[in-house]
Each structure stands twice: as structure tokens, then as C-alpha cells.
Amino acid sequence: MRNQASAHRLAAALSFGLSSLALSAPATARDLTIALSSNVNTLDPFKSTTVGTDLSVAAHIYTPLVDRGPDLKLRPGLATKWEAVGDNAWRFTLREGVTFSNGEKLDAEAVKWNVERVLDPKTAARNKPWFAAITEVKVVSPTVVEFLSKGAYPDLPDQMSMFLLMPPKWTAENNPAVTAVGSGPYELVRFTSGDRVELKARKGYWDEKPAFDNVTFRILPEDSSRIAALTAGDVDLITGFPTSEIKQIKAGGKVEAGSVAGTRGMFIKLNGLRAPFKDQPKLWRALNLAIDRKAINEGLLDGLAEVSACQPLSSVYFGFNPDLKPAAYDPAQAKKLLAEAGFASGLTMELEVPTGRYIQASDIAQVVASQLGEVGVKVNLREMEFGSFMNKYIVGKNLGDSAYFGLGWPTLDAGGLLNFWETENPQSYWGSESFTQGAKAARSTNDAAKRTELYRKLTKQLCEDSPSLFMFFTPITYAQSKSIAWQARGDDWVRAIDIKTR
Amino acid sequence: MPAHLTSRLGEGLIAIWGVVTIVFVVSRLLGDPAVLLLPIGASEAQLQELRTQLGLDQPLPQQYLTFLFNALRGDFGQSFQFGRPALDVVFERLPATAMLAGAALAIGILIGGLAGALAAIYRGSLIEAVVLLVALLGQATPSFWLGIMLILFFAVQLGWLPTGGYGTWQNLVLPAVTLACFTTASIARLLRSSMLDVMRDDYVRTAYAKGLGPRRVFTWHVGRNSLIPVVTMTGILAGELLGGAAVTETVFGWPGVGRLIVQAIETKDFPVVQAGVAIVAAIFVAVNLLVDLLYTLIDPRIRQSR
User: How many CB pairs under 8 A join A and B?
Assistant: First the structure.
């Protein structure tokens, strides 16, 4: 935006200081540059589930049936309306006359083809687990399509907001990893892996014209470099730096910085399948009371995290229980419970901490360890690389005593998240039959009122039994140039269509 | 091709095979990529299905033989995350790496060579002291810190150069200088000490005794003879630079091989790790062969003794 900015300055000077006029009527094309912290690996929306990079970029070129706006609410995308048909089907009505930029029709048949591509084992689609519950796609008419599932699939419309539709014929003839043709507001100009993706506004887009003519995503992995690039005017929007930088960035006066609570809840998972935590509800409760979440938030995250209300869900999730409050910090009570559980003389446990994934994980784990130390629980920290941790945790099914871990669910629905505590889930490490049955019941219906009621009970049980110690929703930080306004969102999507000019 | 070069080539090929084999085994020990490729919450069956599609369900010896057989034909398999042949992914990043390495090496040879020679010629003077101090600092400065400082000064404060990225010569300046810092310092220090060694040799004294001027002595007697260790080290430096400079690439958002291989290791993208390491090993071997060739050009004794 540097050239544009200097053009603005020139225009302002020429119009004798009427800079606001010059800004509202630019003579140049509107350009936007967004810096990403991780690489864009593929443009194929079926071959990645990384929202913050691959899918965000792909979402400019391809469009979903349903769109999730910056307010995290669903709004029509290619579908104008959708409704549940009983407990086993959803019916979507498509916009008429929408085509991909190569002229292929985007009708019910194209939607059906897309679902079948995801489910075909040969595609090796990475997002298959998100749609695997769909058993059949019925084309009712060119503009009406039905998704059938074995059981109920209450958050199917939410999941559809991540289903970017591709043109059948074109996809069969091209490698969608490196090139792209879609029905979205932008089209691909250039994709240089490791460096940048350049997009330009597409003529003939079926919806409102986007605010920017050219959008560039640049890969700048280093936090300091991203901040420098923004300050120098090379990029307009950056995200994902430590909260401690916000003050510094603001102090420069050239750009704005802030944060928004993320949708990924951090917690400490206790391994309830083996000693010392097996069948020790009092011990779990004791640990829950011994962690001062507020102090960690204030001390390490500048108070910008949203402390968990004793449940894995934040207020933006369907099924959030507003009656629950964050776990109290009560070391005296914790000590008492520890003694009652038979650990009066103390306890030594390990805490596994995956690195390189979660904001300030090492720092947070160290504070947790020292807080637990105050009530007589000695914590041995075991830091390990994220990939190794996931192998131990999921493939090896060999979690240590506990782990610092985070979970968000892209549909923002309780069903997906609570599933991780059901006994059959390999990540559960907890054997509660009553919870599992309740969670299954909640998943078996599309009836929102019934589900809400069930999720109130389930979240309450999770809070009281505390098989995991819910910590907080870490903030997503961002900084932007003063010429744009990003409607910051906590669910990782970074899209030009959520940005306005000023 | 001289006999010793042929044998060096053979040794090089064995080295590449060894490196690739070790990488194959070690990467398999790191664990399962499927759990990182599918979204969290994927079922056991879904993980297994993806493993089958990626060929990871085969017994390890069979995977290895398949890999070796295909690699010999130039096929390192499809990248798990880039959706295209792993070799293409690596080759795509090579020009950026070559450009950066070439620039850093050119700066290193030019400035390092000049500074080292000056320090040797004016030994005991202020020039030598300054060169030695700067070189020591240059070798000790972490490229991470230097890179950020250069960005803050030249890109943010002065606005002369872009903060990062790839494509124009302006993008190249700061990362090349950052990377060249170590190279320059190393070459300067080694050339200086090597020249000082040679200057004490009998044939140099003889040359002076014959009545040759200092310029002739330095160019023909000292210069040429002190180059051997410098060429060796430059070769090693060149090999390292061409293997990618992950830290500098990360600071400047430079799309080179170093960052690619680090990313591939983190995400357990085995084909890219294998292709990347094989290519880097091959480059190392090629540079070493080149250094051997240079020896024979510089030093007639090596030519005759073999």
C-alpha cells in the first residue's frame, strides 16, 4: 500500500489539505496485502483443514453454500435457505444461475459431485472427517439439494460453511493444488509457494463487489518481521503475534493493534484411565481449584484471554452453558480435597506440553506447575514437539498423567467438542458412561431446544467432575494499517471480504 | 575425467544414498503423518484410510525399496501437503536458495577476501585490528538478530528496502547481507592467517631475496599458495548456503529450501523431506567435486601428484 499511500498524500497536497476527500475518492485501484504466519501449501480446499492459511485463501476463490460472517453467525452463501427435514436430512435451496468463472454451472448436480469427491477414498480428502456423516446427496431439482445422514447431523449447515465448492469438469482436468477456478469474488493471478498468493477481483461475481481490486497474501513466518512489514507499510494486516507486542505496536502511532478471544479452548487434560487420576474425582476437583487462571491471564496474556466458564465451550458456541462460572481459585480447599483423596503428603505428576502450537504454552505450563506446587503437587513438565505429542496422544494412546492441550470446533457447536470426552473417543482418557450416553442423545436430534437442554446438563457434569481443567480461550492478536478495518474474528478465518476500507 | 575425480564421484553417490537412507529411517521413527494431516477428531478408520492412500500402511522394508526404486528414476512421490510431486516442490524453491547463496557467497569472497588480504599485508597495524574485530563480531552475530536489526533500520526507519519477500533485487539485499555476514567474516579470518603462514615460508623469503617487488610476491607467491585452505572452506560454506538458510529465510520470508525442509519435518511430509535432503546432499557432493577441481587448477603439485 506504500505507493497508494504516497499517491494519497500527493492528492491531499494538491487539494490543499482536503485529505479526507482524496481518501474517499481514490484514483488508484484498491490494493490489500495480508501477511500470514504460516505457508499456504495448497489451493485445493479439500486437501487442507488449516483455516488460517490454506482455507482462508481458497475462500476468496471458491464459495460455500453457507457463509459464516465476521459476527460468527451463518448467512446465505450459494444457498439462499436451508432447513432440516426430520432428523436425518437437510434441504438446501441454491441461488439460481450461478456459474464458476469458467462457465460451468453451480447447481445441485455440482454440489452432489463435490460431496462425492470428498467422500471418495481415492481423493484422500483431508476434510473428509467433517463430512463423513453424509450418506447420500439427493438432487431434488437443479436448485434444491438434500443431504442425508445416518443419524442426525445438527451442525451440518455450520459445517457447510467450510465446504468450498469446486467446478467438476475443471477439477478433473487440472491440479487444484496449484491453480484455481471457482465461483468466488476473486480469481487467482499468481501462487508462489512459500512467498505469496496474488488475487484480483473477478468480473461477473454474483454477489456484492468486494472492497479491494487486488488482494495479496504474503508469507512472513517471523513475528518481528511481520510487525516490521506492517509498520513500514508493506502489508496492511497481520495476525498471531504475542499479546505483549500490542502495546509496542500501538505506541508507534502508525498502525492499530488489538485482539479478539479465539474459539479454541485451552485446558489441562487429566489421564483418567490410569493412576494417579483413575477413579479420583476429589483429586481432579482439588487440581481444578488450585489453578489461578485470572493471574495467568493477567500475567502472561495481558488479560486478553477469555477465562473458560468451567466448560470447553465459549459463549459463541451453540450449547454454551451461561449458568456456569469459571472455576474458583481456592488453594485452601484444594489442599483439603487433596488430603481427603489420600494425597496429604503430596503428589508428583507429569504435564506434557506440546510446543510450537499454542500461544506461550511453555510459560503458561510453568506457572501452572508452580501454582500446583503451592498446594503440594509437584509437576514435572515434559515439553515435546507437537507432532510427537499427537502421536503419543492419539496413535500411541499413551498420554502421560496430564497434558496442556487446546480444542476448537469449526462448526462452533457443542456436539463436536463434547465428543472428545465420550468414552469411545481415543482422545477421551475418561470413562464416564452417563456423560457418553447424554452426549449421544444430544447428537441424535436436530431439535435445537432439546439439544440446548441436554448440553446444559453435559457441560455441568464436565464442570463438576472436571476430567479436564478448563483454562481459557487464548486471544487472536491482530494489527492493521489505519486505512482498513478488519472485522476481527476468533475462528481463524482471515478474508478480504471481512475487511472494509476507511 | 581424472581417476581421482571419478572415485570422488563414486564416494559422493554413496554418501547421498547413505544420507537419504538415514533420513528415511529417522523420519519414520518420528511417527505418523496422518494424525497431523486430518483434522483433530478424525476416527481410527479415517486415519487408516488415509495411511493406505499415502502408502504408509506397507511394511517399512517394502516402503523403503519402493522409495529407492522410484527415487532412482527421479520420482520421490507426491508431497503429503503440497498436492504435487515432492521433487517439484523442492526444485521450485531452489532458484531462491541459489540466488541468496550466490549473493552471500559473492559478498563473502569479495569483501572477505579483500579484508583478509589487507589485514595480512598490513599486519600489526590498525587495519588488521579493525578487520579482526569486525570479523569476530561478524562470526558471533546471530543471523536472526542481525536480520531483524537490518529490517528495522533499512526498511522501517529509512524505507529504502522492502521488509521481506522475494522477486526483485531490492528483496535480495538485506537477506544476502545478513547471510554474508558470517561468510565474509570466516573468509577474511582464514585468508589472513593463511597468508601470514605463507609469508613466513622460505620461498617467499627467496622471492624477496631475488629482488621481486612486494606486489609480485603477494600476487604470485603468497596469494596463490594461501588460497588452498580458503577454497576448501569456501566450498564448505557454499554447500551449507545452498542447503538453505532456514533462519534467514524465516526472518525475511524468503521462499528457500531451508524453510521448506524445516516445515516438511514439522508436518512429517516424508516425500518432501526425502527429496529435499537428497537434493541438498547432491549439491554438497557437487560443490565438493568442484572444490577438488579448483585445487588442481590452483596447485600444480596436486595435478602432478595424482
Answer: 147
User: For the residues of A235-270, what is the DSSP string, one character each?
Assistant: -SEEE---TTHHHHHHHTSSEEEEEEEEEEEEEEEE
A496: helix, coil or strand?
helix
What is the chain B residue with the closest CA to A416? B41
pLDDT per residue rounded down to tens, chain B (306 residues)? 567 778 888 888 999 999 999 999 998 888 899 999 999 888 889 999 999 999 999 999 999 999 999 999 989 999 999 999 999 999 999 999 999 999 999 999 999 999 998 898 888 889 889 999 999 998 899 989 999 999 999 999 899 999 988 988 999 999 999 999 999 999 999 999 998 888 888 888 888 888 888 888 877 778 788 888 888 889 989 988 988 789 999 999 999 999 999 999 999 999 999 999 999 999 989 998 888 888 888 877 776 654
Task: Compute the distance between CA of residue B102 and CA of residue B111 in angstroms, rounded to an integer.
Answer: 14
| The C-alpha cell that represents A305 in the structure block | 484471554
The three-point CA angle A406-A412-A416 to 5° equals 70
> Which residue among B39, B83, B268 sits closest to A130, beta carbon to beta carbon?
B39
C-alpha cell at B57: 500402511
Grid cell 448440553 in the structure block, residue: A455
CA of B257: which chain A residue's CA is closest? A194
Least CA distance to B54: which residue of chain A?
A124
Nearest to A49 among B39, B151, B163 (CB): B39
Say if residue B255 is preceded by a cis peptide, omega within 30 of 0. no
Q: Scanning every residue of chain B, which has its alpha carbon at the shortest distance from the alpha carbon of A39?
A: B263
B166 vs A128, A129, A195: nearest CB: A195
Q: Are B47 and A121 in contact (CB under 8 A)?
A: no
Residues of A in contact with B159 (CB under 8 A): 232
Q: Which three cell numbers stand for residue A272?
A: 483418567
Chain A positions touching B93 (Cβ under 8 A) are 193-194
Min distance B36 CA to chain A CA atoms (Å):
7
C-alpha closest to that of A267 among A492, A473, A475, A490: A473
Best mutation target, B28, B50, B156, B265, to test chain A (most A CBs within 10 A): B156
Identify the CA nearest to A488 among candidates A124, A54, A69.
A69
What are the φ and ψ backbone dihedral angles of A123, each rounded to 5 degrees? Answer: -70, -25
**Min CA distance, A376 vs chain B (Å)?**
34
Shortest Cα–Cα distance, A195 to chain B (Å): 5
All structural domains of chain B: 1-86+256-288 (no CATH), 94-253 (1.10.3720.10)
**Collapsing DSSP states into helix, strand and coil, what is residue A341?**
coil
Q: How far apart are alpha carbons A329 and A293 in whole angstroms?
A: 8
Residue of A nearest to B91 (CA): A193
C-alpha to C-alpha distances, B43 to A48, A166, A354, A405, B39, nearest whole angstrom? 17, 26, 21, 19, 10
ipTM: 0.89
Instruction: State the Cα angle at A398 between A356 and A367, rounded to 5°.
Output: 45
Residue A428: list chain B partners with CB under 8 A. none
Please name the residues in contact with A111: beta carbons below 8 A apart, sequence gap of 6 or more.
Answer: A65, A92, A94, A137, A145, A165
